[in-house]
Design brief:
single chain, 266 residues, alpha/beta, two-stranded antiparallel ribbon, 17% strand
Length: 266
Amino acid sequence: MPNLRLKQSIATWCFPGVPLEDLCKAAVEMGVTGMDLVGARDWPMLRKYGITPCMVQGAGGFGRSTDGARFGPATGWNHKENHDALERTARQNIEQAARANVPNVISLFGNRNGIGDEEGMANCVTGLNRVKKFAEDQGVTICLELLNSKVDHKDYQGDHTSFGVAVVQAVDSPRVKLLYDAYHMQIMEGDVIRTIQQNIQYIAHFHMAGVPGRHDPDETQEVHWRAVAKAIADLNFTGYIAHEWQPNNAKDPLPSLRKAVAMMAV
């Protein structure tokens, strides 16, 4: 098993053709120690293989798409009318994560639906202030995901690092951080390495994927992902970076996953 300076994870939804136990066995062989977006019923399977469910469901989600896209509109903290439901869900999922020693839960900023950034930020801060103390007491980090609004998530408000950082700074809790999805931020703003270096204190978790297309992060893509991984590791980052890409060869994805994990082993 390789000695990995940067902890790696696999977003299981990207590899639906591989049975979970087979994916766990392959992950152990590759040196991967985490998995993202796995439901609670499958956490015992991960633990059997020494794998941490390192990012699980928190609060917010995606509605039904009306145009054939994989993801519909995002419901998040940027609209006050969502706060009651989001608080209930967040508390339930944080408590469940804490019982299982799961470090992070995912959450969303939400679609704009006509509101400006200043109002959206203020609403996010108000809503997250309702749950931050509970997250602190439980020892679980709420991770707000940055997504692109150009290709995959039209109208999403948390589509630039500056927006997310402003919210996290205002909430001012060690348990409210960003999920920095480098695939999405490459599409929206580029300058990924410098942005990470300048904002690492606000980031708890990373996602990555090839750009364009969200496929294998190989030499055909516009981002040199090994350099990104090295930059993150050089910052002494102790969280996870997750492979959240859909393999070009969906029928036999493990060879490309093995190659990508080795590339990120810095």
